[in-house]
Specification:
Elements lengths: L2 H9 L5 H13 L17 E2 L5 E5 L7 H4 L7 H12 L20 E5 L12 H17 L5 E5 L1 H10 L14 E4 L2 E6 L4 H5 L5 H15 L1
Parallel strand pairs: 2-3, 2-4, 4-6
Antiparallel strand pairs: 1-3, 5-6
Helix pairs in contact: 4-8, 5-6
Length: 219
């Protein structure tokens, strides 16, 4: 299977009735600021450089971010922080991403999510996570050059450990946490959510250090 074939399969997924209902409802009702836009309102495949050595795993699409634009982290505040950091680290050709056709290109990294549909309150159920994990397993197998996985938040950290069949006791998540599982280096990073960035629990400098370390480990 190719990444393109997996992408088509992800986009057509309807495994989780709760998530299907929510993502489609958000796409119909819309937020006032985006009332004139047509929402994607489907699952989101990963995207980036097929030759990536760094894989970035997030939680799930934002209801009015990726669920609207059709690309994970594109068009929301978390993405503003992430893509600016990737640009500073040399992984992205521009510091922002607002729409699918905005010219964003990633070099050396690939971005995916633990759950591919926008969940209510940004909280997927364990069963929904488990339904999605095989997509990440297959994505990782197709990205043969990946050596480092950057996990944005504890949910993504747990998902990555499950994908890699990490033995128990599993390494604990923390910002800057670092471990090695099945020939992959794992790095923990606080999610660039507004909850973390507004309170300065996560700063630009902290985010930059994670991607500097990811580049070091991947080289």
């Amino acid at each position: 299977m190719s990444l393109a074939a997996l992408e088509r399969e992800v986009i057509n997924c309807r495994r989780c009735p709760r998530l299907v209902a929510w993502r489609e409802e958000v796409g119909r009702v819309k937020r006032a600021a985006y009332a004139s836009e047509e929402y994607w309102a489907r699952p989101l495949p990963g995207f980036g450089d097929p030759a990536a050595r760094v894989l970035i795993v997030g939680l799930a699409p934002a209801a009015h971010g990726g669920n609207r634009t059709g690309r994970i982290f594109t068009g929301d505040r978390s993405g503003d922080w992430l893509f600016a950091a990737l640009w500073r680290a040399g992984f992205a050709n521009q510091p922002e991403s607002v729409a699918l056709g905005d010219g964003l290109r990633l070099t050396g990294c690939y971005v995916a999510a633990a759950v591919r549909c926008a969940p209510p309150a940004n909280k997927p159920l364990p069963s929904e996570r488990d339904n999605c994990l095989p997509y990440l397993v297959r994505e990782l197998s197709l990205l043969g050059g990946v050596r480092v996985i950057v996990c944005l938040g504890s949910f993504a950290w747990d998902a990555a450990l499950r994908v890699l069949n990490a033995s128990r006791p599993r390494p604990r998540f923390g910002h800057g946490a670092e471990t090695s599982v099945a020939d992959y280096g794992l790095l923990g990073c606080y999610h660039p959510s507004q909850q973390n960035t507004f309170t300065r629990r996560l700063t630009e400098e902290m985010l930059d250090r994670v991607f500097e370390r990811a580049r070091e480990l991947a080289s």
